[in-house]
Amino acid sequence: MLKRLFIIVALLAVSAEPAAAQGGGDQLWLPLVARAQATPVFSGEATYYYATGAGACGFDASPGDLMVAAMNQPDWAYSAVCGEYVHVRGPDGEVTVRIVDLCPGCASGDLDLSQEAFAKIAPLPRGRVPITWQVVSPDLPGPIAYHFKDGSNQWWTAVQIRNHRNPVAKLEYLKDGSQWVSVPRTTYNYFVQTNPGMGVGPYTFRVTDAYGNVLVDIGIPLVENGTLHGAAQFPPGP
């Protein structure tokens, strides 16, 4: 993993200002923002699967950390839930998991946990148990990171936000040094700018979480299939 420290030009816990957004898709993450800010408690059922940490969210496998889960289709929010943390309470315990995958057959409120996570809340032979869960904002080591998808170039630029403690609502890049452009989000958890792309870089990125906190990093080079660290992490959620 490539590592580099970038200059942060925005303070943590700053409310997001209205952007001169181009692109679109903002309406797709508004339900995520409303859900996160209200911090509701969801009810449903938990099952388990043989998770690797990879999946529909496009993250790498994480064999050293299998406290992960797949989100149900109704709550998938066009992949905006990817990377968020949820605290799950079950019949015999509780566990915090990161959302890394999609469970197409799960009903609203349901989660498909890794078997390691399921074992924290109930014996595996039970297979399906009632749960409640809530989005949380855990402490994380290090800053957020930007991952460029393989095939990214100056004309088709795909960026994924990683290692974020709060749900990510929006990614923008600074065009021509004066205009913030909102990058559309895909169902496979990348923000993709095309026709034209973002140019050759380096880029200035502005990332907004579901609580309105903003991080800005400058000088981020385009590294195909590379992961580069920003300068800071989001503050805790409510």
In short:
The chain has a domain at 39-136: Barwin-like endoglucanases. The protein is 7% helix and 35% strand. It has helices at residues 30-38, 115-121, and strands spanning 42-49, 68-72, 85-89, 94-103, 111-114, 129-136, 145-148, 156-162, 168-175, 179-182, 191-194, 203-209, 214-220, 227-229.
Give the secondary structure arrangement, pairings included:
Elements: H1 30-38, E1 42-49, E2 68-72, E3 85-89, E4 94-103, E5 111-114, H2 115-121, E6 129-136, E7 145-148, E8 156-162, E9 168-175, E10 179-182, E11 191-194, E12 203-209, E13 214-220, E14 227-229
Strands across the major sheet, in which order?
A: 1-5-2-4-3-6
CATH superfamily of the domain at 39-136: RlpA-like domain
Compute the number of helices.
2
Radius of gyration: 18 Å
Q: What is the overall pLDDT average?
A: 88
How is the main sheet built? 6 strands, mixed, barrel
Protein architecture, described:
This protein has a domain at 39-136: Beta Barrel (Barwin-like endoglucanases), CATH 2.40.40. It has two helices and 14 strands, in the order H-E-E-E-E-E-H-E-E-E-E-E-E-E-E-E. It has helices at 30-38, 115-121; strands at residues 42-49, 68-72, 85-89, 94-103, 111-114, 129-136, 145-148, 156-162, 168-175, 179-182, 191-194, 203-209, 214-220, 227-229. A six-stranded mixed beta barrel has the order 1-5-2-4-3-6. The protein has a four-stranded antiparallel β-sheet with strand order 11-8-7-14, with no helix packed on it. The longest helix is centred in the N-terminal third of the chain and has 9 residues, at 30-38. It is elongated and about 55 Å long. The model is unreliable at 1-25 (pLDDT under 50).
